[in-house]
Structures are given as C-alpha cells and as structure tokens.
C-alpha cells in the first residue's frame, strides 16, 4: 500500500510538472506573438502603415492599432472562457494557440501602405483583433490549468507560468534588436517581418506540447457531478460580480505597468530622448531576464505570506518608483537606464504578476473559474494595458514632460492598492468548487 501511494504521489508530481512546463512554454509563445506587435508599433509601423502622418501622429496611430488587440481581449475572454468552463481547459488552450499563431504569421505577410494603400492599416487592425481574441483566453486558461493541478503550492506553480511573459518580452525585443542591426532599408523592407514569420514554427511546437496535456481534476469533478453551467460567463456577471470587479481592480496597475515598461519606454527613449534603439531594447531585455527569477520568487513568497501582502508591496513600490524611473531614463546613460528598468520591473511588475496566476483564479469557483479569470484579466487589460502606451504618449505630448505619465502610474497603482485591501486572502484556502 505504501509503495502504491508513493507511485501515485510520484505520478501526480510528474503530471503537475508536465502541465506547468507545457503551460509556461505555450504562454511564452503566445506572449511573444502578442508583444512583437508592440515593439513593431514603437519602431516601424508608423513608417510602413501610416506614412502620410507626422511621425509622432503616426506613432499614436500605430499605438491605436496596438490597443485594438486589447479591445478584442475581453471578447476573446468571454467566448473562450465560456467554452473553457463547458468543454474543458485543454480544448480551448489548443484553440488559442491556433488563433494567435495564424494572426501573427499573417501580419508578417502584410503588404504596406505604399503597396495597397488604406487596405494595409485596415488588414493590420483585423489581424491585431484576431491576436487579441486568441490571447483573451490564453493566459487565464494556462493558469487555471496549472493551479487546478497544483495542490497547496498554487502561488509558486502558477508563477512559473508567468515566466512566459518575460520570456516573450526578451525574445520579441531581442529579435527586433537583432533585426535593427540591418541597414535601415533592409529592416524596413523585410527585416521587421522576420519576428512575425518565425512565430509559426514556435506555435507548431506549442501546439504539439499542449495536445498532450491532461484535463484538470477539478473540471473532471464538476463534469462527473453534472455541475457544468450552461452560461458560465453570464453567471460571473450575475452571481460573482464582486469577485469580477475585484479581479479588474487588482490587475489594472500590473497590466498597465507591463506595457509602459516594455513598449512606452522604447518610444520615450528613442523619440523624446533621441537615444539609439539598441540602448533601450537591450535594457528591456535585461529587465525581462531578471524577471525569470523574481516572478517565481514572488509566487513562492505569496504561498508563505499571502497574495495580498505581495500585491500591497507591489502597489506601494509602483507609487514610489513612478518618478525615479524617468529620472534615470533622462540621464541617457545606458547603465542607469538598464538599472532603472531592472529595479522597477522587479519591485513593481514582478511582485504583482507573480502571485496573480493564483490570486485571480482563486477568486472564482470551479464552474466559472476560466470565465471569471478571463473576464477579470482582460477587461483590466482593455482598460489600462492596451491603452497605456497610447495614453502615456498623449500625456507626454500634452504636458511636454514625463511628470504626467508618472501621475498616471500612481493613479493606476492606487486603484490596485484599494482593490487588494478589499479582496479576501485566498492563499491558505482550498479552491472553491
């Protein structure tokens, strides 16, 4: 009997490890697909798809198409979350991989404005919308899949999935860094397409890995008990609305910071400060690499001290570093710029994003967990994530200085702090069923 129990425990650990690895890999690929658009919007889309505009206005137009992906995310979250709670987590994770992969690959094939005129930005917007639909159900499905396998170490195992984000940032920014070493004419003609086209190979790998995933025991349990809901997304709004609003509140600062630190800083450094593209791209890559370690650490700490403690710390640091971040950027010194991004990413985004993989799904019961996490995360992303580079660029143009952007960061952080104080502590409770 002891031997059988030992074998069973070993098999459970093996299954959990495989689920974590497959989810993290798939999430990294999907983040790569989504984030290369942001880097391209900051560097090249204003020239190729909006060339008739003033350069800064063209950048705003490019960021507007960037935001379209975030408008699509709640729609994708509602649709994919609905079927994830009805048909299973695994099925929809495979579907999101296909949607993201095709959308990204086709962006790399698009003709430019000089070739087909206004149809170029129109097609760009459509494909960005497809990307947003795919990502809308990707992250939530991956973290729900993991924490429903993870037992009492949900914070730590969930945070391993979050490593997919900095990996996607490092890969997307790094490959654009390589492409920008090409002569300008080559970069504008074909170099920018390479990051989009090679994603089809990565998606193929992720697709095969995800096909081998096992469905979660929590979902199997509600299927066996015939407790699968007919309209889980509507049930979130009807019965779980408080958890839904809290999920939005605790996320707005983290998701806003993610894109301000990885996208807007590129625009600020290259246009406002006149720095070479490689300086800020390298700094973003180094900050993302450090997050490989700090995200799992934050998840582990949240298992020990609670989700709320980490979230409150991240919110307070976000307020404290909102102005110093730009002080360091304005020095134009590569080492200080890199230090600023590493420290800010570690003490703000990592402390919020690491525990989020467990905290967000823990707010919802099993029957609506996929839908609740999807809607909460993606509505917040639509409100602050996709529009944050656009809002920051507009604030910079209005104020003529970074101070307005710093105030914006402080405002987002205060919302997250308030929501965290109102949320229940979930770290030591069993998952709700």
UniProtKB/TrEMBL annotation:
Keywords: Cell membrane, Membrane, Transmembrane, Transmembrane helix, Transport
One Pfam family of this chain: MFS_1
Chain ranges passing through the membrane: 31-50, 56-80, 92-113, 119-144, 156-178, 190-211, 244-271, 283-302, 309-329, 335-354, 375-396, 402-423
Predominant location category: membrane
Domain of life, source organism: Bacteria
CDD domains from the UniProt entry: MFS_ShiA_like (cd17369)
Domain named Major facilitator superfamily (MFS) profile: residues: 19-427
Subcellular locations according to the entry: Cell membrane
Its membrane topology: Multi-pass membrane protein
Record protein name field: MHS family MFS transporter
Origin organism lineage: Bacteria, Pseudomonadati, Pseudomonadota, Alphaproteobacteria, Hyphomicrobiales
């Amino acid at each position: 009997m002891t031997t059988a129990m030992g074998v069973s425990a070993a098999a459970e650990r093996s299954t959990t490890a495989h689920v974590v690895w497959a989810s993290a890999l798939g999430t990294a690929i999907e983040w790569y697909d989504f984030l290369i658009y942001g880097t391209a919007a900051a560097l090249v889309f204003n020239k190729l798809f909006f060339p008739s505009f003033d350069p800064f206005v063209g950048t705003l137009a490019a960021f507007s198409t960037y935001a379209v992906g975030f408008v699509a995310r709640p729609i994708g979250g509602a649709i994919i979350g609905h079927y994830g709670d009805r048909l299973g987590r695994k099925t929809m994770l495979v579907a999101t991989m296909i949607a993201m992969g095709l959308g990204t690959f086709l962006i790399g094939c698009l003709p430019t404005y000089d070739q087909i005129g206004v149809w170029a930005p129109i097609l760009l917007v459509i494909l960005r919308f497809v990307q947003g639909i795919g990502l809308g159900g990707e992250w939530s499905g991956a973290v729900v899949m993991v924490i429903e396998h993870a037992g009492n170490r949900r914070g730590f195992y969930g945070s391993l999935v979050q490593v997919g984000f900095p990996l996607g940032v490092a890969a997307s920014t790094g490959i654009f860094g390589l492409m920008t070493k090409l002569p300008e004419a080559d970069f504008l003609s074909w170099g920018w397409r390479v990051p989009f086209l090679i994603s089809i190979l990565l998606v193929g790998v992720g697709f095969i890995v995800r096909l081998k995933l096992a469905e979660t025991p929590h979902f199997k349990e509600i299927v066996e008990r015939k407790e699968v809901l007919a309209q889980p997304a509507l049930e979130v709004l009807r019965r779980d609305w408080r958890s839904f609003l809290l999920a939005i509140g605790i996320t707005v600062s983290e998701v806003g910071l993610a894109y301000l630190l990885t996208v807007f800083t590129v625009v600020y450094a290259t246009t406002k400060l006149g720095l070479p593209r490689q300086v800020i791209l390298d700094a973003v890559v180094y900050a993302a690499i450090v997050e490989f370690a700090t995200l799992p650490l934050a998840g582990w700490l949240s298992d020990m001290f609670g989700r709320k403690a980490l979230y409150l710390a991240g919110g307070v640091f976000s307020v404290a570093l909102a102005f110093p971040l730009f002080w360091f950027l304005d020095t134009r010194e590569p080492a200080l710029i890199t230090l600023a991004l590493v420290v800010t990413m570690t003490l703000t985004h990592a402390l919020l994003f690491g525990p989020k993989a467990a905290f967000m799904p823990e707010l919802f019961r099993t029957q609506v967990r996929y839908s609740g996490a999807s809607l909460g995360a993606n509505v917040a992303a639509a409100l602050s994530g996709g529009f944050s580079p656009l809002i920051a660029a507009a604030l910079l143009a209005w104020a003529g200085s970074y101070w307005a952007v710093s105030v914006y960061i402080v405002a987002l952080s205060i919302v997250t702090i308030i929501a965290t104080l109102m949320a229940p502590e979930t770290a030591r409770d069993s998952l709700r069923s």
